[in-house]
């Protein structure tokens, strides 16, 4: 009988912690005040003839990956974008993904969409939502990524974020995570904020990662106007368990859905410095919005997310970076959870390759010979 108060107190403590966690998590996820646009107001088809399907009201699109839509009918400028933006689609006789791109490039902005990922067996499938200017600056491009990595049936989707500036592909800044929901069951909002001061990645208005600009980053901080892209493609050679599990086209078509688009930024010509310089008013407006600052409650939510769902961070990968990159904020309690490979000591799996992963696989010589 003497143990009952202890048990009761423990139960009360557990309930308090449980409700505190979910209160902080979901209150931080209160909706932003966003102005959504239709697909045609902001985007255009990039690649995958017939594999981009618009809804009748123009508010949403589906991107498909399948085996048979094959032969891409690309205009010359689309071929240039695919080849020069690390999006070479080489094996189109076998399978075809698809993608779209924003009509403008933006000097800073808030880029967002509700996304629903394919279900069932999705190993080898990658869905990407990201900003880039690789079609303009082939060797010095900037990029901000969400990449969703498919899995075998019964295993959850995982995803990674990454930051590149000025062609710094040899200094990848990727982090990998799990989600607290099934992203194939319903739509969830994924957002990228990019300002002159910071970068924030959001999932359902929960901040999951922040990169604060500092002088030591130099050109590694993205600084040139970028387009917004979304793609789905076959990444069998690396996406799931390091390439162990491939895309199985018996489950095709793989369908990703996008809706409620947000493009809030300053359109700019990447080759005209004057146009980018004229974005100061829009930058000030962008930085005044509620999504541009991480409130104390949102910071608690971000810390909880990273404690529970992040399973790889480049900041703790001391084999790769003996000295952490300058933007890394090393949290001792967080660091203790990771090995010197940047992976969790317990739970979580991350088979990392040192090579930069492109949105669509780049063909090797043997790949081209096989497709010939």
Automatic annotation (TrEMBL):
Signal peptide: none annotated. It comes from the Eukaryota. The chain crosses the membrane at residues 12-32. GO terms for molecular function: hydrolase activity, hydrolyzing O-glycosyl compounds; xyloglucan:xyloglucosyl transferase activity. It is an enzyme of class 2 (transferase). It is found in: Secreted, Cell wall; Secreted, Extracellular space, Apoplast. InterPro entries: Beta-glucanase-like, Beta-glucanase/XTH, ConA-like_dom_sf, XET_C, XTH. Contains at least one intrachain disulfide bond essential for its enzymatic activity. Pfam families: Glyco_hydro_16, XET_C. One of its GO terms (cellular component) is apoplast. The keyword Transferase applies. Residues 363-372 have a biased composition (Polar residues). Residues 342-372 are annotated as: Disordered. Residues 30-258 form the GH16 domain. Its EC number is 2.4.1.207. PANTHER family: XYLOGLUCAN ENDOTRANSGLUCOSYLASE/HYDROLASE PROTEIN 8-RELATED. Catalyzes xyloglucan endohydrolysis (XEH) and/or endotransglycosylation (XET). Cleaves and religates xyloglucan polymers, an essential constituent of the primary cell wall, and thereby participates in cell wall construction of growing tissues. Belongs to the glycosyl hydrolase 16 family. This is Xyloglucan endotransglucosylase/hydrolase. It comes from Vitis rotundifolia. The lineage of its organism: Eukaryota, Viridiplantae, Streptophyta, Embryophyta, Tracheophyta.
């Amino acid at each position: 009988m003497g143990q009952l108060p202890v048990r009761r107190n423990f139960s009360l403590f557990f309930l308090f912690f449980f409700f505190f966690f979910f209160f902080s998590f979901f209150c931080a996820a209160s909706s932003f005040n966003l102005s959504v646009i239709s697909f045609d107001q902001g985007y255009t088809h990039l690649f995958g003839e017939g594999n981009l399907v618009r809804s009748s009201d123009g508010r949403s699109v589906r991107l498909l990956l399948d085996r048979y839509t094959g032969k891409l009918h690309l205009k010359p400028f689309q071929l240039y974008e695919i080849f020069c933006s690390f999006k070479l689609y080489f094996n189109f006789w076998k399978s075809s993904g698809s993608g779209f791109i924003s009509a403008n490039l933006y000097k800073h902005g808030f880029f967002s969409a509700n996304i629903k990922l394919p279900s069932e067996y999705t190993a080898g499938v990658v869905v990407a939502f990201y900003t880039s200017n690789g079609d303009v600056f082939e060797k010095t491009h900037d990029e901000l990524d969400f990449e969703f990595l498919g899995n075998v049936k019964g295993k959850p989707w995982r995803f990674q974020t990454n930051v590149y500036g000025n062609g710094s592909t040899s200094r990848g800044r990727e982090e990998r995570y799990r989600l607290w929901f099934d992203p194939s069951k319903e739509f969830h909002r994924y957002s990228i904020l990019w300002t002159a001061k910071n970068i924030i990645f959001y999932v359902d208005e929960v901040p999951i990662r922040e990169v604060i600009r500092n002088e030591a980053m130099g050109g590694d901080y993205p600084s040139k106007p970028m387009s917004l892209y979304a793609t789905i493609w076959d990444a069998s050679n690396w996406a799931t368990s390091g390439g162990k599990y491939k895309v199985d086209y018996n489950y095709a078509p793989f369908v990703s859905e996008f809706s409620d688009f947000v493009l809030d930024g300053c359109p700019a010509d990447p080759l005209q410095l004057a146009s980018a310089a004229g974005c100061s008013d829009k930058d000030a407006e962008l930085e005044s919005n509620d999504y541009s600052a991480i409130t104390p409650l949102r910071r608690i939510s971000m810390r909880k997310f990273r404690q529970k769902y992040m399973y790889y961070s480049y900041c703790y990968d001391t084999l790769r970076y003996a000295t952490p990159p300058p933007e890394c904020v090393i949290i001792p309690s967080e660091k203790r959870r990771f090995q010197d490979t940047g992976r969790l000591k317990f739970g979580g799996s991350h088979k990392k390759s040192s090579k930069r992963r492109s949105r669509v696989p780049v063909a090797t010589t043997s790949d081209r010979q096989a497709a010939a």
